[in-house]
Amino acid sequence: MVSALTVLLLSCWLAGHSGTWGQRLFPKPLVGGSPRWVVAPGENVSIRCEGRFSGMEFLLHKAGYPNLQQRVVPAGTVAEFPLPSVGRADAGSYTCEYRPINAPTHGSNLSDPVEIIVAEPSAPKPSISLSPSGGVSLGASVSIRCRGQRLGRQFVLKTARGQFLHKDPDGYEAEFPLSSLRREQGGSYSCSYHSKSEPFTMSYPSDPVELVLRDPSLPRPSVSLSPTGVTVPGADVTIRCQGLRRDVRFFLHQAGDLTRPRPMDPAGDGAEFHIRPVGRQHGGNYSCSYRPRAEPFVSSAPSDPVGLVVAGETDLTQPRAAPDPTRPGSAGTDDSEQSGSDGLSTPLIAGVSVAAIGLLLLLLAALVCFVRTRARKGDAPRPSSTIPLGALKVPAQQDPVYASVDEGKQPQSLPQEPDPDGLTYAELDHQALQAKRGAPAPEPVLYAAVSRSRGAPP
């Protein structure tokens, strides 16, 4: 009886305080994102509505449609209204409100509207990246960068839950910082850009990027390699990841590989990754991690790495195997390199030898021509103006004459007898020559003429 009276008095007080029955008593909720969303057909959209009090029922309305769109009762103060695979019929203006479950006539004011525009993509898709890209822990910060190919566009980041964050940069790139990361923020992100006014044109969405958050409370797994040691190309290798939980999924990471890690469902508390056959591109360090099935974008820290060494390529410190002399037809990399080297060196040496012999013959021919030319010049008669006859101290004769002038020495008389070889020598008086010419003495010059006698003197 007392409780009924209390409810009655409270209702009367609310009615008198509000002035009219059914007046809205709660402040309007907030709608996340921009007031205008430009999306492509087939996108999954989610309208996020945040109230002030818990234990409320949230309602979504579309302008021009009297029927209620959706009703949600969240566990907290935030409700999400998903619109999967939107089409042109989903375009329009949306508002939301919330109200007590047991007092539906006392709801909140309507939220600010959000307009959804469905446009066909026509511009090139942008690129998207995470910074840092090597993994982010819960509670840390990350930046998502979106870079397009058109200026004067508004960038839109589609979050993992289908919400949209907007940026209006001056250049080609927009950055969306996310701080104090929570579990629900892990997931797949993509971005696009669109014009700022009608008619709205938009780009194709970027390739998605996954934001995986590491949970430090999850124990790290271990990794092992079988067989161990150096692996020959063509062999089979098994990499085993071992964890401490069974409701997880394992992922294999290769150092330097930026592609999505390989997933594997466990068999018990571990998973085995098979590489068959092994090639040189498989050499490197491997580690593994796991993610709880209930939280596919929350991960453990990676295990300590294990090295896969492929013979002949990865471990360059190991000596190469010598070719098998009994199997000349099965030459490997070293055999082919050696044979190629031998095949090239033989014609090269032969060519160099032929060129050297040809050059030697040319030089020999030039030397013979030079000697013959000098010999012809020695047989030719000298002009009288070159050597005055009065300067000679020996009688003129028909035999070849050797003449030499040496400044600073006195002229010496040479024997008049013929040389056993049929040659006669004469020395010129340098001073006498200059006196007859009446010219100043030049620098010392040595003249010589050589010619072989054609016969014995008479």
Q: How many structural domains does the protein architecture include?
A: 4
Biggest sheet overview: 5 strands, mixed
Oligomer: single chain
Number of helices: 3
Distance between the termini: 175 Å
Briefly note the CATH topology name of the largest domain: Immunoglobulin-like
Radius of gyration: 51 Å
Strand order in space, largest sheet:
2-8-7-4-5
What is the C-level CATH assignment of the largest domain?
A: Mainly Beta
Helix percent reads 10-25%
CATH superfamily of the largest domain: Immunoglobulins
Level-2 CATH architecture of the largest domain: Sandwich
Q: What gross morphology would you assign?
A: elongated
Beta-strand proportion: 25-35%
- Average predicted local confidence, pLDDT: 74
The counted number of beta strands is: 30
Helix and strand composition category: alpha+beta
SSE map:
Layout: H1 2-18, E1 30-31, E2 36-39, E3 45-50, E4 56-62, E5 70-72, E6 78-83, E7 92-100, E8 114-118, E9 121-123, E10 127-131, E11 136-137, E12 142-147, E13 154-158, E14 164-167, E15 173-178, E16 187-194, E17 202-203, E18 209-211, E19 213-214, E20 222-226, E21 230-231, E22 237-242, E23 248-254, E24 262-264, E25 270-275, E26 284-292, E27 298-299, E28 306-310, H2 333-379, E29 401-404, E30 424-427, H3 430-437
Parallel strand pairs: 2-8, 9-17, 11-19, 19-27, 21-28, 29-30
Antiparallel strand pairs: 1-3, 3-6, 4-5, 4-7, 7-8, 10-12, 12-15, 13-14, 13-16, 16-18, 20-22, 22-25, 23-24, 23-26, 26-28
